[in-house]
Design goal:
There is one protein chain. This protein has a twelve-stranded parallel beta sheet with strand order 3-7-11-15-19-23-27-30-33-36-40-41, with no helix packed on it. With 529 residues, the chain is of the alpha/beta class. β46 and β47 form a beta hairpin. It has nine helices and 47 strands.
Length: 529
């Protein structure tokens, strides 16, 4: 049955003002159409029904008006189904009754190619149950008054909702597709739950005017410049989505975790992330990161493991969580291998990364996760030390702090330096600090009539002499060790020392207790809650 024959059979009336065909109802249930079914610019006052219909070509309702619902349940369309710039579900003047909440339904339908509702106006729900869509699903620029529901529906490629407006949708999904779900520049005017299992979920410049919950599987999520007026949560769904009929089949997509790839331009004050991978997330440009909430397991990027060569020198990076932007920046500043290069232009400089680390540190501290905040404090201090705009004196102080204890976070480094310092002090004390012999007090008396005056003097310690190896005796080692250990705990050993030994002890009593304190501080920082 050709399109021209269809129009002749329908015998529509013509609107005198718009010159458009006007139909009462349009029913082709259980029919077989050998070619295209085209109804561009047609006005249907009632319902459009293609239930159990076979269409060998395309179905087109472009710039049409459908007052009732459009039902394509169990239809078989070998081409595409287009509803561009079409109004569906709005009861026109002169027709009694009310709008059916379900404006569009494709339950059990099979469409071999694209299903498009670009710039359409749909007053009610759009429902796909156990349908098959061979191509892409398009709702670009559409205005949807109800929900967009998908139950056990396979989408061959992706689903795009760029610029769509959801007036009162409370649910969108569950979208299961091989490619991306694109919600860029879409607007959600009411609280909504979005469920999707896809390769990517793109939410660039998406606007949520109410609360929203995104339950996702596998997807790479791009939230660049998204606008959130109310709390929005992004979480990884642990199991395949299921409804009353069991778990939904999922396409084979790489990666078990949901990965957030960008928060650029996002006000994170209303954002909650749960069980998502942040190892490749770009934070530069986001604001209020100190109010970002992270729950569950949210892994960040890590420094390269193992030993790498930087020029002629082997280097080993201290294990810690870092930002993806730091990885990108270090590929430009170090010749050591293992860092991940940037895929999107020049990375931010340390001056821009330090505030990001500071805000994320505060976010962890506010959630009472002090050990989790430690790595971000380390990253903040690293960026301050490596920032060329930091004054030289401050950079030198930070470098000393880093070398001594890893900014008060590396107990092993502080303890190792303490042991080296104590060993060196013991050795120096044995060689030059202890006198040749312990001075012996000498008493002298004076008889003046019936009175005797006795004076006791202790000679000055005599510097040791002779070969250095002879000074390394067991007795001198024991005395030197007592001096050093007492110095660490701010006590005086009472041992007689040479002039050089006195100054050595003074330096030891100043430096070594500080190293011990840094080691204790680092251990406490990892254990406290």
């Amino acid at each position: 049955m050709s399109e021209s024959l269809l129009r002749a059979l329908l015998a529509p009336t013509i609107d005198s003002e718009t010159r458009k065909p006007v139909l009462g109802h349009l029913r082709f249930d259980h029919a077989e159409i050998l070619g295209d079914a085209g109804f561009d610019r047609v006005t249907v006052r009632g319902k459009v029904s293609f239930r159990h219909t076979k269409v060998r070509g395309n179905v087109r309702f472009v710039r049409a008006e459908i007052g009732g619902s459009a039902e394509f349940n169990d239809a078989r369309i070998e081409g595409s189904a287009f509803f561009g710039h079409t109004k569906i579900g709005s009861v026109l003047s002169g027709m009694p009754g009310s709008v059916n909440r379900r404006s569009v339904s494709f339950n059990g339908a099979e469409i071999r190619s694209v299903v498009g509702f670009a710039h359409a106006e749909i007053s009610g729900d759009v429902v796909f149950v156990r349908a098959k869509i061979g191509g892409e699903l398009q709702f670009n620029g559409a205005e949807i008054g109800g929900n967009v529901l998908f139950r056990y529906t396979a989408i061959g490629w992706g689903a795009t909702f760029r610029g769509a407006v959801f007036r009162s949708a409370t649910e969108v999904g569950t979208l299961v597709c091989k490619d991306a779900v694109d919600l860029s520049e879409a607007t959600f005017e009411s609280g909504v739950t979005i469920e999707a299992s896809a390769r990517a979920v793109i939410c660039r410049r998406t606007r949520w005017a109410s609360t929203a919950t995104l339950r996702l599987r596998f997807a790479k999520v791009d939230l660049s410049n998204a606008f959130m007026e109310y709390p929005v949560s992004v979480s990884a769904h642990p199991r395949p989505f299921a409804r009353g009929g069991g778990e939904m089949a999922e396409p084979e997509v790489p990666g078990p975790l949901v990965r957030v790839t960008s928060l650029r331009g996002v006000d994170a004050a209303h954002l909650v992330l749960a069980d998502v991978d942040l190892s490749r997330c770009r934070f530069a440009g986001a604001i209020h990161l100190d109010q970002l909430r992270m729950e569950g397991r949210c892994p960040f990027a890590a420094v390269p493991s193992g030993i790498h060569r930087r020029g002629l020198w082997p280097v080993r990076w201290t294990p810690r969580r870092i930002l993806a932007e730091e990885q990108h920046w270090r590929t430009h500043t170090t010749s050591a291998a293992g860092w991940t290069p940037s895929q999107s232009g020049e990375p931010p400089e340390p001056a821009a990364l330090a505030p990001i680390y500071r805000q994320l540190r505060k976010a962890f501290e506010d959630s009472k996760d002090e050990p989790g905040a430690a790595d971000f404090y380390y990253g903040e201090m690293e960026m301050r030390r490596l920032n060329r705009d930091t004054p030289r004196a401050e950079r030198a102080l930070l470098a000393a702090y880093w070398a001594a204890s890893g900014y008060g976070l590396r107990a092993s480094r502080a303890m190792g330096l303490l042991l080296v310092s104590m060993t060196t002090t013991v050795l120096v004390m044995m060689l030059w600090g202890l006198p040749k012999d312990d001075p012996k007090p000498e008493s002298t008396g004076t008889l003046n009539g019936p009175r005797i005056t006795i004076t006791t003097d202790t000679p000055d310690p005599v510097n040791p002499d002779g070969p250095l190896l002879k000074r390394l005796s067991t007795d001198r080692f024991e005395k030197s060790l007592q001096v050093v250990i007492n110095s660490v705990v701010f006590r005086s050993s009472g041992q007689d020392l040479t002039t050089g030994g006195t100054y050595i002890e003074m330096g030891s009593r100043l430096a070594e207790p500080a190293l011990l304190g840094l080691a204790v501080l680092a251990v406490w920082g990892r254990l406290k809650r």
